[in-house]
Request: fold
Amino acid sequence: MLTGKVALVTGGSRGIGAAIARKLASMGANVAVIYAGNQQAAETVCSQCREYGVVAKAYRCDVSSFDQVKETVAAVKTDFGTIHILVNNAGITKDGLLAMMKEDSFDAVLDTNLKGAFHMIRHCAGIFLRNREGCIINISSVSGLMGNAGQCNYSASKAGLIGLTKSVAKELAPKGIRCNAIAPGFIRTDMTDAQTDNPLVNLIPLGAMGDAEDVAEAAAYLVTAKYVTGEVLRVDGGIAM
Amino acid sequence: MYFEAIAKVIADRVGCDVSAVKPESTFTELGIDSLDTVELLMNLEDELNIEIELDQPVVTVGDLDKFIQSKQG
Reply:
């Protein structure tokens, strides 16, 4: 289905990003796995992707750096020839109560989660415009839709991603480039280990936390949904409806 | 210096005679919107084998010519 397509997935070494990388590979896409620090995990994901007979390669990149992203996108383009699908999944948390939050904690989360997505889109846009084709998926969060006490920085970054998604969708739609967001709810990953005690988990209408693969299914849908752009697709067991 | 190349790319794009593209022609007059301008730059990059980082709006074809010259030295 995606044979010959090239996907770039940030935060691709673990959790939701790894699941999306594997899913796109299973659909035939070659995959560039972008990771921040865990090379071994990124290589493992690449190996899993290659089992589907596609090309996969890991790239270390701090997405909060405009210049590093520029170099990484150029390297992916050199290695794979082009890029068709961009998944902005890289994200960090530095949770804390607003009244005690240091400026650094706020900035770091915004820089990676929101500016990181901007950097990637900014540097991939030229490739997409040349191809007159492109699919961007930003991984937001229900935290960005509903807010979440103790996560003002994370919520702000994820809400910002939704604004970014809709603006990019409107700006690039005339050129055949789509941009959508996924808002996962409580998904079992390393990042949400601390959230399993969150009382909100008991309020999930579908009665359980989700898996990274549930989010990957949504990404697979958005990649193939040619008439969908500017959408925010909740994958949250119904908690944010 | 780059004007001829720019005029050719524009003429190809909008389907007009290259002589109709003048330094004082605005992109709006030529039927090229701001996003089209970005695409036009990419065509120029390919044509001229240079990298153009447009970080300011350009109104006329002459503005673009001057901008590219200033970046290329």
Observations:
- Chain B touches chain A through five residues (CB under 8 Å).
- Chain B has one domain: 3-72.
- The helical segments of chain B are 3-14, 34-48, 61-72.
- Residues 28 and 48 of chain B are 24 Å apart (CA to CA).
